[in-house]
């Protein structure tokens, strides 16, 4: 026997067509937790009768929600609220910074069906330009332009994910002997590449907006006779969640221009940028390598990165890309093309932003105020604490079944006394996330020797 839907049917207020009001009401109630992952939605005819609308209106609303990744259809069983899968057995993984899963099986199947009709054997079997097919480059440049990046297609290279784009940017900008300036806490993947290249890494002071201009000015003012390059994450900084204001970004760009310093801007969380705040690549395009990707914005399964390079660096960037992997995957490029042209990309990104806000609010609610949790509407949060305390916190969380990123992984100087713990909120189900946050909260209870 099929279970009844727990949802109380309603239409959202407004003058929009009924299917949009129905989709809006359901999306709001999913975001509010009134119906959760796995809950059944009402049958089409029953919902149409209860709301006094047509069955076709319900079908259009459900299709809109499925495109956004909020619901999924199971053949012969009905429509259900979508949810994420368990990350491993026996533990809840809050260490991998993946976005919430917003793709439905039906959407993915439909995409692959379109791909099967569109991609012929000759195209699949042919080598492409090292920087990607011209149409794919044009589409990703248009996507980036919508986020304020001056990304002409001929300066935009497609890569196998943002990590490869970052590796190429670091290789081009940082010859041996370079001092890499970055935030005191920064993306572990960048630190890994820099250390493997033997670069001197200099961590700079941070505040609520991320990298401080005073620290940058001091580092640039000290002339060590070395080439200096700035690697920085202005939007939803990983791991601290800080986002630079427009004024801070302009000050950073001015300092780098005054000292002739190359910028590597990590913008993989660009979908979370505040409206009207421009990336560094638009403020200093002549000296900025802009790193972006779709894995954080849409799905980890879409390993498509983009590297926007200064105008005089295109030839070298293409040569380095050709030497490393020849060209990005044609199959992945075609999936990207479909999603960027049919509205899927914007719908999924919008759903990820909405769900990330919900998860951030849950983290802020479940963890005690004395924890000093930092959230900023993204799918990770930051617990600042002394480094040794952070090591113990991660170890004790693991004993309780919650996996976290190693505390020192994001530290430019792993011996620094102050650090913290990143909590990745996106991968687990809401139920799993709530359970894990309760475990972490318990570690702050009096008598728990975590922070001593």
TrEMBL record:
HTH gntR-type domain boundaries: 16-84
- Write down the Pfam families for this protein, in alphabetical order: Aminotran_1_2, GntR
* Organism in which the protein naturally occurs: Labrys okinawensis
Keyword list, A-Z? DNA-binding, Pyridoxal phosphate, Transcription, Transcription regulation
The source's superkingdom equals Bacteria
GO molecular function terms noted in the UniProt entry: DNA binding; DNA-binding transcription factor activity; pyridoxal phosphate binding
Q: What is this protein called?
A: HTH gntR-type domain-containing protein
Family statement: In the C-terminal section; belongs to the class-I pyridoxal-phosphate-dependent aminotransferase family.
């Amino acid at each position: 026997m099929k279970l009844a839907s727990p949802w109380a049917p309603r239409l959202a207020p407004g003058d929009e067509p009924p299917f949009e009001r129905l989709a809006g009401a359901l999306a709001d109630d999913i975001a509010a937790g009134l119906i959760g992952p796995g809950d059944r939605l009402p049958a089409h005819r029953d919902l149409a009768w209860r709301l006094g609308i047509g069955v076709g209106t319900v079908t259009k609303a459900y299709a809109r929600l499925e495109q956004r990744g909020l619901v999924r259809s199971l053949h012969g069983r009905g429509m259900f609220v979508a949810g994420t899968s368990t990350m491993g057995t026996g533990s809840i993984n809050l260490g991998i910074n993946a976005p919430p899963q917003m793709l439905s099986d039906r959407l993915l199947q439909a995409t692959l069906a379109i791909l099967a009709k569109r991609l012929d054997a000759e195209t699949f079997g042919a080598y492409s330009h090292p920087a990607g097919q011209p149409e794919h480059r044009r589409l990703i440049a248009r996507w980036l332009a919508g986020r304020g990046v001056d990304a002409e297609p001929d300066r935009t290279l497609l890569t196998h994910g943002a990590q490869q784009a970052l590796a190429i940017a670091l290789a081009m900008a940082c010859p041996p002997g370079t001092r890499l300036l970055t935030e005191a806490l920064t993306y572990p993947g960048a630190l890994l590449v820099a250390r493997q290249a033997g670069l001197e890494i200099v961590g700079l002071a941070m505040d609520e907006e991320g990298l401080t201009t005073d620290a940058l000015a001091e580092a640039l003012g000290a002339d060590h006779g070395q080439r200096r390059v700035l690697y920085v994450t202005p939007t939803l900084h990983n791991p601290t969640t800080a986002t630079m204001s427009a004024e801070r970004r302009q000050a950073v760009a001015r300092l780098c221009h005054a000292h002739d310093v190359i910028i590597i801007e990590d913008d993989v969380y660009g979908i979370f940028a505040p409206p009207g705040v421009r990336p560094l690549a638009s403020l200093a395009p002549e000296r900025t390598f802009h790193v972006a990707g779709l894995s954080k914005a849409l799905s980890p399964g879409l390993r498509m990165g983009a590297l926007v390079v200064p105008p005089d660096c295109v030839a070298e960037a293409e040569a380095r890309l050709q030497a490393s992997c020849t060209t990005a995957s044609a199959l992945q490029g075609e999936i990207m093309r479909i999603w960027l042209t049919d509205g899927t990309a914007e719908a999924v990104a919008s759903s990820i932003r909405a769900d990330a806000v919900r998860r951030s609010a849950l983290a802020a609610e479940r963890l005690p105020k004395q924890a000093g949790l930092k959230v900023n509407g993204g799918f990770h949060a930051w617990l600042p604490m002394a480094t040794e305390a952070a090591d113990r916190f991660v170890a004790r969380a693991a004993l309780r079944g919650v996996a976290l990123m190693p505390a020192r992984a994001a530290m430019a100087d792993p011996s620094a006394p102050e650090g913290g713990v990143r909590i990745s909120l996106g991968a687990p189900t809401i139920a799993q996330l709530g359970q894990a946050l309760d475990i972490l909260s318990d570690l702050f209870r009096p008598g728990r020797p975590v922070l001593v």
